[in-house]
Write a structure and sequence with these properties.
Length: about 110
């Protein structure tokens, strides 16, 4: 007997009266397949809704936010440049109107 054989566990044959698996109630395969189909349908719907959400983010929300924030940065940097280079004071008369106009301009080309 080698060292390898000492780690091998011999399979004991179960006696028919102690087999617990056979005593469990059986479930028809029709019930299991219908549950599996409903689970797979729900999984497909979930994946489709995630894909739609991802498309909404990448096609609508991110470009809109990028344009809006890009325009705000452009106006801010233009104001700083004009004040620094040409000594001109730039004042926005209505911040709310300015922000609304920026949002409308950003959404106009989407």
């Amino acid at each position: 007997m080698s060292g390898y054989d000492s780690f091998v566990i011999q399979d004991a044959k179960p006696s028919p009266d102690t087999d617990d698996v056979d005593s469990l109630p059986s479930i028809s395969s029709g019930i299991l397949s219908s549950e599996a189909d409903s689970d797979s349908d729900a999984q497909k719907e979930w994946e489709q809704s995630l894909e739609q959400l991802q498309l909404m983010l990448t096609m609508v929300l991110i470009p809109f936010a990028g344009k809006f924030l890009g325009r705000k940065f452009a106006y801010w940097s233009w104001t700083r440049y004009m004040e620094w280079m040409h000594n001109v004071e730039i004042r926005w008369t209505s911040k709310k109107t300015f922000n609304t106009a920026g949002a409308v301009e950003a959404a106009a080309t989407l």
